[in-house]
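tmp note - Adenylate kinase
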Amino acid sequence: MRKYVIMGVQGSGKGTQSALLADDLDLVHISVGDIFRWHVKHHTKLGAQVRRLVAAGELVGDDLVEDVVKDRLQLHDWNYGFIIDGFPRNRRQAEFFLESYDLDGVIHLDLPDDEVRRRVLARRLCSRCGMDYNLIAHRPEVEGRCDVCGGNLVTREDDTPDALARRLADYHSKIDPVVELFKRKEYVMTIDARADKATVQRAIRTRFNLPPYLPSDARLSG
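out:
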């Protein structure tokens, strides 16, 4: 059983890299952001609370994140392990995690703030089906329209320059100390996240002695 934490500022590719690892290694990808987005989309009580915070330009509180993660991990559907994205968010949570779970490692995706701004402000979301786009790496065939359902592409409510500046400040004040704590425990491998997704994935696997990464087209041809 493998258990990993993946950390990195918004736009560093945590979701993409987690999905590649999860698919190949039969891990459960636990994304705090995806959990909250599901609740917002399905108009749950938690979703309404998150939507109010986002609309006000505020961040979801650490205690709420902690409760969501604990509930998710208690499902125990991760027979072969998990990779968790978006947690822990402070030193107390990190210490709890180290005491409660025998981690195999922490993947730290390092990305400069200037590149974060470039990537995040280019993101778009289909207002109908929820498909993610990035105008840098994944442009739709028809500008402003989803390739899947034809819905309008919109900017996420929290993808504004002011909101991003707040998130970056919050990230560095809270998460940098968490990364340092994990480093002292010798769990952390820092990966340069500026490269393309395949290069980053190969670097992760090399550093953690995992099976080599073969893109889906290479597997089919082999």
